[in-house]
Amino acid sequence: LETLSLRMLGCLVGICFFILGLGTLLPWNFFMTALLYFQGRLNTTEWSNGTAVVRTEYYFNNWMTLLSQLPLLVFTLLNSFLYHRVSETVRIAGSLVFILLLFILTTVLIKVPMDEDRFFSVTMATIWFINSFGAVLQGSLFGLVGLLPQKFSAIFMSGQGLAGTFAAIAMLLAIASGTDSETAALGYFITPCVGTLITLLSYLLLPRLVKSSMVENSKPNGHSNGSVTSSPTKGDVVAEAEVDPGPEGPKRAFLSLEQVEKGQAKASVLEVFKKIWVMAFCVTFVFTVTLSVFPAVTADVRTSFPGSWDRYFISVCCFLVFNVNDWFGRTVTTLIRWPRKESRLFPALVISRVVFVPLLMFCNVQSRSFLPVVFHHDAVFTVVMALFALSSGYFVCLSMSYAPQLVEQKDAETAGALMTFFLALGLSLGAALSFPLRALV
């Protein structure tokens, strides 16, 4: 019974990390998949001599991508160096509270009349601040999960992958509801408010679950996964340690860092980087390729079957296909981990993903000025998007979970925080490249 109880608590802890992963990428995905709402409020038309003319072209896709990733890069870098000076609770719970408030503001603005320029400025400012807090949240959680066995990293990143699917399905339901665009957008943005609140509650619940685990472990002849535990190791799901109910409770309860690190000084950031630089390069390159065309290029692909399908095409074939396959790619790493982290084939396969950039640019992207359309059919675009997303999720998850294994246990949190910075660097480089690549089409 004690073993069963510990396993159930371990499952609940895994669920909490899954929800935390989901919560870290909800802001980005909900803004990205709400393109129809934002374009409807921004790209208004006026009539001139009987011809409809767009008053202002805001390039919302490109600016949203860029202003999402720049603060992510800056604040992830700051978090990598300053995370030990601010308590974990302040960084994680505080970020979730501010993200929730900004989502509430976005929801309220749906009912507030506003001219296009002002609405664009307010939306861009909201995106900037949401992603600033999201960077601190993501960096802190990657640092925490880097201390745990690899399966927790996979669970956390699987939750991140599901965030996109969650947002894409919410967008489809909003479109299919048949209500006016304002009401549909209202329901759409209330969803991440609820999701962020659940994420915050999951984080606050985590110390209680760990404390319960410690109570079970403190019983005579306590067992963990069927074997007697003695000292904390990286492989422990829940270490036998005294629970600190304070801000660092979850971290210390899982790994009993006072015992693991006793007499051991942490390596410098540069020393850790020298051990993980290959994985840092891989995660940077994967996201550079992914964000260079998604969504700035892929969201402008048009269906070859106009009609009622047209209003669902981008939501299904671009966002839903990408997010489902990205989530699957992340999740499959719990079963398959190939190539190994020492293999030279791993970075070679990561670099080979660059082939997806021209493939997607040659799809039916409209409007276009320079490149010809090579792949007209929706099926070709959908298959390319599926492989593009699957490889992205798979290699990102492997890179992020391999990196902490390349350093000593005492440096795992530093490795996790550093990898989050390089993840953000890849996102920012991809966002910057999206401007010339879209113009090239």
UniProtKB/TrEMBL annotation:
Membrane topology annotation? Multi-pass membrane protein
Q: Which UniProt keywords apply?
A: Membrane, Transmembrane, Transmembrane helix, Transport
Is this entry keyworded Transmembrane helix? yes
Tell me the superkingdom of the source.
Eukaryota
* GO cellular component assignments: basolateral plasma membrane
User: What InterPro entries does the entry give?
Assistant: ENT1/ENT2, Eqnu_transpt, MFS_trans_sf
In terms of one coarse class, where is the protein primarily found? Answer: membrane
Molecular function, one GO term: uridine transmembrane transporter activity
* Localization in the cell: Basolateral cell membrane
One GO biological-process annotation of the entry reads: adenine transport
Q: Where does the sequence pass through the membrane?
A: 12-38, 58-78, 90-110, 122-149, 161-179, 185-206, 276-297, 312-333, 345-367, 379-403, 415-435
Q: Which family does it belong to?
A: Belongs to the SLC29A/ENT transporter (TC 2.A.57) family.
Q: What is this protein called?
A: Solute carrier family 29 member 2
